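Trying the structure run again after the queue cleared.
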Amino acid sequence: MEPVVSAEEVRARWAYSELLSDRPYDDPSVQELKKKALERVPFEDLTAEEHGVLAQAWYRVRGVPTFIHGFAGITSFQLADWSREQLAASYVIPYFAHEVGAQEPITFEQWIEAEPIRSLEPGHARYATSGAPRSAQGEPLLVGRLAGLPTLLDGYHRAVRFWKRAAPTATLLIYVPCVEVARTTR
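Done. Tokens:
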């Protein structure tokens, strides 16, 4: 069984994984951490203080209501291996559901199989299989809860690549709320 990690650590990992992206992690407190990310220093080699800085940076960049609510009531996560079927049954954030015209929660499978109702930028997650394939999975995906439903919060590009390219028996590493582990490993 994988170790349990705190919600704060998951937020810190999320921030660290995107420090070098176009997300606005421009606060002076993370500049040294950006250098470490560029040097590919593993998250595990960062100090507890650096983890705290990253968790606070996450709030400044990603602390929108959807994600805050997705973490609500969750104190810890555990890694789980999810199949394509488990990913299919998870839900997408409202922003993505609205892109395909849904006003109610929809599953990942419903979202990825639907056509967008408007044009999306070429770098959108649903087009993650365009271009050269990426190698390793990287950070695990993240499932939280919105409206009581297991909802994919982070990792849409990786999820789309898995959905479209993985072998039928392949699995994907996903952080799930500890209460979700029992439901997803049956």
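The mean pLDDT is 90. Worth checking whether this holds up in the mutant runs.
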